[in-house]
Design goal:
This protein is an alpha+beta fold and 258 residues long. Helix content is 29%, strand content 23%. The chain has a five-stranded mixed beta sheet. It has a five-stranded mixed beta sheet with strand order 4-10-9-6-7. Helix 1 packs antiparallel against helix 2. The longest helix has 32 residues. The two termini are 36 Å apart.
Length: 258
């Protein structure tokens, strides 16, 4: 992460919905701060009113302090209802239902494993080639891509290197080869558990270029600390040039894949 990416509390957002997620976090922390102060004051007042001492008799009902916790409960209830039904649920529904058009997006697959991120681009035909578990070779074909499938011949794969163009929707299809991982792009405010046997899509729209890391936010084994990847957002021209370079490295029809 670049030094310019550090904000006062959170890394500076780099996606279109980063500000909305940050607002949610700030509102929750503000509520917790208010509760901490009010309950702290009530606790001190309670200790003073009902303190024990020689010859002192505890008086009940002398002060209307019971209104403090009642008011606090009402405030918390109203605040939580607003957060859930007025903000969080509509926003979460937008993230889960309003996916961008795949034909106008950068679509990639990310296959997690201990301890790497395998990135799969569909190539110029826009179709992901077939993968078969029996073809998996950790050194030369970690996702088991079947090159007998015509759709796989132009596919591009990288290990722990995800590049995408700026200001264009990105759809990432996540799955895992072994255990549960968690795909995390903090500056994009993207975090999603990656579960074996399932394919889970996430999307975002990057708003600025930069170099960051893919992180695993789920303890996934004894080398979890090594599960990092390069995450690079480029302008359209640089991304297209990189893709052309990777396409030039693909084997030709008369060449052996292995």
């Amino acid at each position: 992460m670049n030094s310019s990416d550090y904000g006062y509390w959170l890394p500076k957002g780099a996606s279109t919905f980063a500000a909305e997620i940050d607002t949610t976090l700030y509102l929750v922390h503000i509520l917790m701060a208010i509760m901490f102060v009010v309950w702290g004051i009530f606790f001190i007042m309670f200790l003073v009113q009902f303190r024990s001492g020689k010859g002192r008799k505890v008086e009940h009902g002398g002060y209307p302090w019971g209104i403090i916790p009642i008011s606090m409960i009402a405030f918390i209830t109203i605040f939580d209802a607003y957060m859930l039904y007025g903000y969080d649920i509509p926003f979460w529904g937008h993230l889960k239902k309003d996916f961008p058009d795949a034909s106008k997006s950068t679509v990639v697959r990310v296959v997690a494993q201990q301890f790497a991120w395998n990135v799969h681009y569909p190539g110029q035909d826009g179709k992901f080639g077939r993968s078969r578990p029996e073809l998996v070779d950790e050194k030369i074909n970690p996702i088991g891509l079947d090159f007998d499938d015509p759709a796989a011949k132009d596919d591009i794969t990288t290990v722990s290197q995800l590049r995408i163009p700026v200001e264009k929707p990105v759809i990432v299809h996540l799955t895992s080869k072994d255990v549960i991982h968690s795909f995390s792009l903090p500056v994009m405010r993207v975090k999603q558990d990656v579960i074996p046997g399932m394919t889970i899509p996430v999307w975002f729209i990057p708003t600025r270029t930069g170099d960051w890391q893919i992180a695993c936010a789920q303890l996934c084994g004894n080398s979890h600390f090594k599960m990092k990847g390069i995450f690079k957002v480029q302008n359209q021209e640089d991304f297209a040039a990189w893709m052309q370079t990777k396409e030039a490295e693909l084997p030709q029809d008369d060449e052996e894949v292995w």
